[in-house]
Amino acid sequence: MLPRVELLKGLENREIVARVIDLAEQAIKTWEVVVTDFLSPPELLEVRQVFDRLTEVQLVAWGGYPQGERQRCAIARADIPLSQESVTLAAVDIAGNFLFDPATHRDFLGSLLGCGIVREKTGDIIILGERGAQAIVVPEMVEFLTLHLQQVRSVPVQVREIPCRPEDSRTQEKRTDHRGSLLAPRCDRFGGVWAISQQMVDFINSGDVRVNWKDVSQSSYNLKMGDLVALRGKGRLEVGEITVTKKDRYRIQLTRFI
Domain ends where: 86, 108, 141? Predict the structure, then answer.
């Protein structure tokens, strides 16, 4: 048995990590590869920290494409071959004409959950503009969604399984470097990177902005070097070196992941 009490000390996502430890013990006992549900980035971070302390088992995480945020983990004994292919995933295309009734990530997620699917069975949702979206899910949900997901907002949709290669620019990571000068390194001042300076506060207030995978609710939150900022549907940026100029402005280097 794994040292559960010791492994769970000080963790924020104790219940989730405990379930993963249960699966690890199952993998040790049965000599089989087991797969978790989808984990959020903070949950996955703590799971990785736990598994870094274990020698009996190994873990591979995969979300369907290189920048996938929500990921499943395959777990096996240390002497059993394990790779990304061990993580079973499926992708569905949710197609409709959203030209006159645009839908957000929240709309698609709400429709998925409204069908009776729990969040842990769904991975990333990639918005494709007026065409609809694609979603990564556990394979056993595909048939259910093709039958039961029929509408998002006011738009009728058709759901079909597609190869698990979402049509999204993030499937091949692109980086662009930015330099800027700000009065303060506040979170709400970084909207210009995404050309949404006027809307950044609205995004923060609606829960669409996260720093180091944690929700940010205050526009005045100050960023620091090394912080990773994620804006739902827009991508991520990493804060680089921050220096203060003679005029007390903050010169900031940024890397944007598209």
Answer: 86
Q: Which residues contact 159 (CB under 8 A, 6 or more apart)?
A: 92, 93, 94, 95, 145, 146, 149
Q: For residue 202, give the CATH number of its domain.
A: 3.10.290.10
Phi, psi angles (nearest 5°) of residue 137: -140, 170
Asked whether the whole model's pTM tops 0.90, one would answer no
The string of pLDDT tens digits covering residues 193-230 is 888 888 899 989 988 898 987 888 898 999 999 998 98
Edge-to-edge, what's the strand order for the sheet holding 175-182?
Answer: 175-182, 250-257, 235-244, 228-231, 209-211, 214-215
Beta bridge partners of 179: 253
Give whole-number Cα distances, 81 to 25, 74, 86, 232, in Å: 17, 11, 9, 35
Domain of residue 112: give its range. 90-169
